[in-house]
Specification:
By secondary structure, the protein is an alpha+beta fold. 28% of the residues lie in helices and 32% in strands. It contains 9 helices and 21 strands. Strands 1, 3, 4, 15, 19, 20 and 21 form a 7-stranded mixed beta sheet that branches. The protein has a 6-stranded antiparallel beta sheet with strand order 6-5-14-2-17-18, with no helix packed on it. The chain has a 6-stranded mixed beta sheet with strand order 7-9-8-11-12-13, sandwiched between helices.
């Protein structure tokens, strides 16, 4: 059994009797300085321990979010009507989706981007199969030609005014013309404007009455609009409230639609008004007309992770568009790729701001305006987007977890003149590589080791300095005593 004296022999910290030690003013000063140095170095080491270091690498994209990518958008078009605005997607694999409506919402806006009402609900667009009667040269002129000067007078005179806004060069307008004039003659015979006066069919040549057509937000030809007496009075937003006709365009279908429009007026005059008495086909052929000339498009689309295009344009299978009058100017409020960052990750996102968020909204707030009249007709606005995924991974001890993943992009835009209908086109191409940012936190054992090294090192250095100072002072005193002798 070991004795206490043998155990004491391995003591690293042998004690000197207090009576044999002597305190000095210089030693007290060095002790204070050493303590302050220890505290300062400890604070720096603690800050370094709490700071997460990162390393960046480029690896092959191993995304776990499947083969599809989500594109969020909020884009305003001051001069594109919601009536014809279409969001299309295509890619190099042959995917071609036209007029996406399930995940897209549209709102009518004025030229200053102010909303003019609630969400624009166009409803299902009936497929027009009968575009008119064959021209036999015997249909004559049955409809009334309206101009800017007499349009308001006629719209307030008749309970129902149906107007065909057309362009002489338009193929579909010429297909409609024979049946439109025949229908106008038949309706005039049945409901004499002078004796009955409940309905009138008219027409407007948009090549001659450009201001009138722009006032009624006509962008495609032919556009058949239904004006009800008094409903075209401007409200506080300054727009007209009426309907568009999208039914069949042969004489029989048009006559049937006009009869359905007149019937409620007749019932109301006899105080026998009943709702929903019109033919269902006619109801489906009518849609609200756009309340303003602009449109804000918002929502999202899903695309494959291959090079492709997101195209916003005016589209219709039974209308023509004047390319020289189409203006695809737009303001991008938001355009991003991938999932939105949830509020739960916002705190982490702020911490990771030095590494993320520098180019995921590169086009947000940008305006791309093309002014007509200065040689900028038929202008297509194109954006070329290079998309790359950035992922941040945090490593804690022997395990790791994903903090944030997002898609960042660079953008280059251009305005180009084209002989086709102008569009706003977003070309996107995803990089096969991804940026991996790894957070490497320091271990606690490394932190404790450094703290011990700081305390021991400062204490040792301070002891050496104190010994040197003490011995130097003793030597000086001896020299002084020697000189005195």
């Amino acid at each position: 059994m070991l004795s206490s004296s043998k155990i004491k022999s391995v003591d690293f910290y042998r004690k000197i009797p207090r009576d044999l030690t002597e305190a000095s003013l210089s030693g007290a000063g060095l002790s204070i300085i050493a303590a302050l140095a220890m505290m300062f170095l400890f604070g720096m080491e603690l800050s370094d321990y709490l700071t997460v270091n990162t390393s960046t690498s480029i690896i092959v994209d191993n995304s776990s979010d499947g083969e599809f990518l989500r594109i969020e958008l909020n884009i305003s078009f001051p001069a594109l009507s919601c009536e014809f605005a279409s969001v299309d997607v295509s890619d190099v694999l042959g995917t071609n989706r036209l007029n996406i409506t399930k995940t897209i919402r549209k709102f009518s806006i004025d030229p200053n981007l102010n909303p003019t009402g609630s969400e624009f609900h166009p409803g299902p667009i009936p497929k027009v199969t009968k575009h008119g009667d064959d021209a036999d040269g015997e249909y004559g002129e049955g409809s009334v030609a309206l101009t800017t000067d007499n349009f308001d007078r006629y719209s307030h005179q008749y309970p129902i005014l149906v107007v065909n806004f057309y362009a002489p060069w338009c193929y579909w307008s010429n297909r409609l013309k024979p049946s439109w004039e025949k229908t106008a003659k038949i309706i005039k015979e049945r409901y004499d404007p002078d004796l009955d006066g409940r309905i009138l069919l008219a027409k407007v040549d948009c090549t001659e009455e450009g201001d009138l057509c722009r006032r009624n937000h006509i962008q495609g030809y032919p556009s058949v609009r239904i004006f009800r007496k008094g409903s075209d009075i401007r409200d506080e937003h300054g727009h007209h409230d009426h309907e568009s006709y999208y039914g069949e365009r042969d004489t029989d279908s048009l006559v049937q639609a006009m009869e359905a429009l007149v019937a409620p007026v007749q019932l109301e005059s006899r105080r026998l008004a009943l709702e929903n008495k019109s033919d269902n086909t006619t109801d489906n052929a009518k849609r609200p007309a756009p309340s303003a000339g602009g449109c804000r498009i918002e929502g999202f689309v899903r695309v494959k992770k291959v090079p492709g295009n997101l195209v916003i344009s005016a589209r219709s299978g039974s209308h023509s568009f004047d390319a020289s009058q189409m203006n695809m100017s737009h303001v991008i409020s938001h355009l991003s790729f991938g999932k939105k960052i949830t509020p739960r990750l916002m705190a982490e996102f702020k911490r990771l701001t030095p590494y993320l968020g520098r180019s995921n909204d590169r086009l947000n707030g940008r305006q791309y305006i093309s002014h007509h009249g200065d040689g900028n007709a038929n202008v297509t606005i194109e954006h070329y987007l290079q998309v790359v995924k950035t992922e941040v991974v945090s490593r804690k001890s022997s395990w790791e977890y994903k903090l944030v993943e997002e898609y960042e992009y660079t953008a280059h835009s251009s305005l180009a003149q084209s002989t086709h209908i102008p569009v706003a086109k977003f070309h996107f191409e995803l990089s096969p590589m991804q940026v991996l940012i790894t957070e490497n936190s320091k271990s606690f054992s490394h932190f404790i080791t450094n703290v011990c090294a700081i305390i021991g090192g400062v204490f040792t250095v301070a002891g050496i300095l104190d010994s040197i100072l003490h011995n130097t002072m003793r030597l000086v005193k001896k020299v002084e005593l020697g000189k005195n002798f």
